[in-house]
Design a protein that fits this description.
It contains seven helices and seven strands. It is of the alpha+beta class. It has one domain: 3-Layer(bba) Sandwich (Chalcone isomerase). A seven-stranded antiparallel beta sheet has the order 1-2-3-4-5-6-7. The longest helix is centred in the N-terminal third of the chain and has 20 residues.
Length: about 190
């Protein structure tokens, strides 16, 4: 084999090895969410679900949006029951989750609103934990109760206020979300 071909094979296999180190083939598969479910005393109905892929290649998480049964996704930021489920395909540290969330909030929520929500944003950011492939986070907003953050079904914190939920869900559902195609699919567009 000519030297230049051997070198290209070495580069190819080194790149493949790096990709496999980041994307293990044995990673646990997140469990899909049902179309109808009950949580916090509310019956939720799924409006959409999709796998979010980084750079359209690497699976990050499976997302599913549920609204209170009978509610319209056209009123997504109204004071109504809303539930977002994220089932992870890979590991992330809490710091990575918080950093990404803060950047997306800055793109979707004005500075004055973020400042007014700062204490509650800091509380949810302190609550996040590292995740492994197969773990899931759920954000469930119920009017008068607030937004409950759950890790693998276990409640971690409840953040009060519709204003918080309306801002925080914009990370995935706002004008400049993590992925416009994910947003549109979740909203059933």
């Amino acid at each position: 084999m000519p030297h230049f071909l051997a070198r290209r094979f070495c580069v190819f296999f080194a790149a493949l090895g790096a990709l496999l180190a980041v994307s293990p083939l044995h990673a646990a598969r997140p469990v899909p969410t049902p179309v109808l479910l009950e949580e916090d005393g509310v019956l939720f109905q799924q409006t959409g679900a999709k796998t979010f892929r980084w750079k359209s290649v690497l699976k990050v998480y499976d997302a599913a949006l549920h609204l209170g049964a009978g509610e319209s996704s056209g009123r997504i930021f109204a004071d109504m029951p809303t539930r977002l489920h994220l089932g992870y395909h890979r590991a992330f540290t809490a710091a990575e989750i918080v950093k990404g969330g803060d950047a997306l909030l800055a793109r979707n929520v004005d500075a004055a609103t973020r400042a007014a929500l700062r204490e509650r944003l800091d509380l949810i950011n302190r609550t996040y934990r590292d995740v492994e492939a197969g773990d899931s986070y759920t954000l469930t907003y119920v009017p008068t109760r607030g937004t409950t953050l759950r890790l693998n079904g276990a409640s971690l914190v409840i953040i009060p206020g519709h204003d918080f939920a309306a801002a925080y869900f914009r990370i995935w559902l706002g004008d400049d979300p993590i992925s416009p195609s994910l947003r549109d699919t979740l909203l059933g567009r």
